[in-house]
Hints:
alpha+beta; disordered N terminus
Amino acid sequence: MTAANPSTPNLASLADELERTLKLRTPPFGMKLLASAESLKAIPKLRRPQAVHTMDQIVAQAARLGWTLGVTAGDLVGDQCRAVVGLGGQDAAWYAGQPMAGVWFATVEDSARHQAAMEVVPVGRHEALVVAPLAKWGGFGAGQDEPDIALFYATPGAMIYFINGLQWSGYQRFDWSVVGESSCADSWGRALKTRQPSLSIPCFAERRYGGVLDDEMLMALPVADIAKALAGMRALAKNGLRYPFAQYGIQQDVRAGMGVSYPKGSA
């Protein structure tokens, strides 16, 4: 096995700290686009699908079963899944959105507007995609030892605390959108395309076919942003701001509670 790049972050440690800090139910995982399908052969212990799947199922097998999977366009059902990760679709017929009209949207015009609103990886640049638990990437060899993006499922409470950690240093406001069905375009589609933190409310398909639980949201972002958020959450914890959030009581005098974190006299 090729040694990991020494400049690569310790992904196993990042994954472990993120799991512990946010009390995650499933480990964080990573995605990487490959220009050539031949590159899949170099990744150790990689599984290839034995059936046609949605991308939601591929993601679930990595996140919930701990598998390392490689897919090409033929492994995915229809152009809706392929288009989000740049492995197909994105032609005139796909943008017309006819298959979704009358199913998810009242008219063909509504469906076409939905397709145009989706964040997708430009088609034609890649032939394959790898999905694997974040902790495994360090053993994939030079050039493959870090994913393009990392992803994790978390409850809304855990997710806002993670976002607070991201905003601790170098504050920025985050603006995210919701396309509705096909909201994987809001998470891994947007993050793969822009390399920006991307939060989504998983859609019907993700929950029906990908096993996403009713109270789970999905974050997709570069690995470096996980390290940034963890540093921020460590700083917040020193101020008494920790996850899970201890319930204070809706009828208590709030000053004592706020006095733990804020300067004297401000509460």
